[in-house]
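So, can you check?
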Amino acid sequence: MTVVAIIAAVLLVAAAVITSFRILAGPNTLDRVVGIDSLVAVAAAGLAVWAAYSDDTALVPAIVALSLVGFLGSAAVARFRVRDDR
């Protein structure tokens, strides 16, 4: 189980670095919002990996709450998005 958790953690860190690059270098606002949503999903996956590694089920509500916040944030941005000026 430890090897799988280490591999998952390394892949999640790589995904977070790539996503952070998208957030910082995104050509427009919508790309940055998609990057932030992806980073929230990576964080939820990281919490899930930690919960599986430590056999701690107390993190499950935090994972659900983080997922809901990410979804509602994306839905709000999609609803009230203003076009970028060119």
The longest helix spans residues 29-54. Residues 2-80 form one domain. The chain has a mean pLDDT of 90.
